[in-house]
Design brief:
Elements: H1 2-19, H2 56-63, E1 68-70, H3 80-95, E2 101-106, H4 113-133, E3 141-147, H5 158-164, E4 166-171
Parallel strand pairs: 2-3
Antiparallel strand pairs: 1-4, 2-4
Helix pairs in contact: 3-4
Length: 174
């Protein structure tokens, strides 16, 4: 067993001795005028500045309140103030040709449910037809009537009723 240990130790020592290398006498010359390869600058990911064009947030911001038009009691005609708001909406929709919208028709709480749904539909269609007359393709617009079901103002008084008699243009998110 002692001989085996001695033999293994000697073979290990010989093997290690054979592995040692001496440095070469001559080293290669140092490279001259080596410019490191330029590392490409990472392309920054563009960060959107504000809402995406054509989105509801962008539309609302651009309209600043002109996304809603208001009607007199039991009426669905477009007056001059409504026409100005609808012109702004049409300009937006024509600028962002991929944008699609829903025109929502609303009524106040007075009248029957069926009457208010029909009145809301007439209001939504009046706004839609005006937008189409300004050049917005009809295929990019749809209408829906909520009648009295989605009031923005609660109360049974003229101020609340006036705010609820409206047509609202809402962008359809893709």
């Amino acid at each position: 067993m002692n001989r085996l240990i001695i033999a293994v130790t000697l073979s290990s020592a010989l093997a290690l001795g054979a592995c040692s290398k001496e440095p070469p006498a001559d080293l290669p010359p140092v490279p001259q005028d080596v410019t490191p390869a330029p590392t490409p600058a990472p392309t920054p990911t563009p960060t959107p500045m504000g809402p995406q064009p054509g989105s509801q947030a962008h539309f609302s911001s651009a309209m600043a309140g002109a996304d809603t038009i208001y009607f007199d009691t039991d009426k669905y005609n477009i007056d001059s103030e409504d026409a100005a708001a609808l012109r702004r909406q049409a300009e937006y929709l024509l600028q962002f040709s991929g944008a699609r919208a829903t025109v929502e028709g609303h009524a106040d709480e007075r009248g029957t449910r069926d009457y208010n749904l029909a009145l809301g539909e007439r209001r939504a269609n009046a706004a839609k037809n005006y937008l189409v007359s300004l050049g917005v393709p009809e295929s990019r617009l749809r209408t829906v009537s909520y009648g009295e079901e989605r009031p923005v103002a609660l109360g049974s008084n003229e101020q609340a009723w006036a705010r609820n008699r409206r047509a609202v243009t809402v962008m359809i998110e893709r």
